[in-house]
Prior knowledge:
Largest sheet: 5 strands, mixed
CATH class of the domain at 60-218: Alpha Beta
Amino acid sequence: MNTGTLSEEQVKEILEAVALKAQSSNQEAVPAPEPSTSTIAQSPVATFVKFPKIPRFEKVSVLITEKLDGTNAQVVVPEDPEAPLLVGSRNRWITPGKSTDNFGFAGWVHDNAAAIRTLGPGTHYGEWWGVGIGRGYGLTERRWSLFNTHRPLPVGLPANIGIVPVLYHRQADLFNGSWGNIPEVVRALRQNGSRAVPGYMKPEGVVLTINNQLYKVVFDKYGPSPEEAVS
């Protein structure tokens, strides 16, 4: 057995051999990763969508207005005072003209554009109703009644611009029975006649708005609904 002194070169060779053996041993000790059999993605790439928070149910806002038997009519007043008005029916844009209008609404808006602009920028929805439309209500003219009952009308508008009649408006509590006299309000309209045209005894029905969701109740069908027409 050689017990002599090792040279620096020999020591270096021994250390390198030990290091290589340790490295080889460590590599063998680490098991290879097994294929994942999980059905759950570890790093999903899809966008996470949070379930919406459920609001607490306490009170609901109930608004009842008279439903008018006419045709849906809207006017868009642009921010730019020099830009033209946009006029629409329920389903399309309309313009004055025999084949492009709807019961003459666009032509009427054209004739009253300056006054209608005073409603302010935005989209103004309403019902165009009266003579020759639906049940007619015994009128000799046509009227535009706006659906937004919360916004007062400016002064100086044509006499045939108004707001749908409000029959009932309050906060109701479902759990203590404070729905008020809603059935009586609806029954009174049916028995006493239209609030929009006093004396007309065949009102179409009511529109209930409950927390901004609209529902309609039609009393009696009066022939076919007014369709898109040229007039």
